[in-house]
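Morning run. Coffee first, then this:
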Amino acid sequence: MNVSKSLNGAPLTPEQNSLKLEETMNPGRRTFISNSLAAASFACLMPLGACMGTSTKKQPVGFISGVVKNDLEKMDWREVLKKAADMGYTEYEGQNLGESLPEFKEYCATLGIKHIAGSVPFVEDMEAVTTKLDELQSLGVPYTVCYYPWLVQAPFTKADCEQSAQLLNKIGKLANERGIQLCWHNHEKEFIPMENGALPFDYLMEHTAQDLVSLELDLYWATNAGADPLQIINTLKDRIKMLHVKDMEGGSNQEITCVGKGTINFETLLSAAQKVGIEHFIVERDRAINGLECLQTAFDHLSGLDLPNKVS
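And here it is:
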């Protein structure tokens, strides 16, 4: 069979002649090439994001009840939650706001809000701990948080850290038995060195069981303490279960402000968090005068960030 000319009659190059001969001897190759080209053409008829590998997954955003403390004192709690849901918030961290647990759980479900975390006391009284954990279990809450995992005031000694790590493991075990993951929440005090120069933050992470104790990383307090939250995220990865997304004013003031009004680079931090598997971003603003307005400002800012998984 003559395979030395192309369709237009021009002589084939040695490379073309070799390829033509291979296709003649192996017709399956020709079929494979045709099918591959057809598949590629079909793929690029799909949405541009799918063809280029851009994620279309959406990033849920939550808020903690403390942001809307003033609003809850002035308005019915249902109205407050409804306004937050209308902004786009789909997760809630905080206490039960209803007259009963079933009422609160049902109303959150109607709004499409998931109650993902509630507090547990950091005390040696395990009866008080189990009572709270049982309540959270009945609400179907996946996480519980010790917001101040210390029995003493800062600065902390190594002995203080040992005591806190042991108690976190104990509470974490009780939580785990109920299908709940315990997290502890940092402030700036965990970054004040102990007498041996080591950080209480590092001690707690190194001396608690990874399957029982996780971290809710507060981005404001880590930044305020002079730590590097980006390094923490990239080091601890998905041992961090939630981020408290809270902004800081610039200059020497460094006070807490609404997300989007300060200096913290949330685009860099939240992008890194998504890449290592941190799923929950919780907006917080201590002592907010108008919490709902602050939540709207925060959601607008987060929606405009160039993240792998967009907020919307």
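The longest helix spans residues 158-177. Good start to the day.
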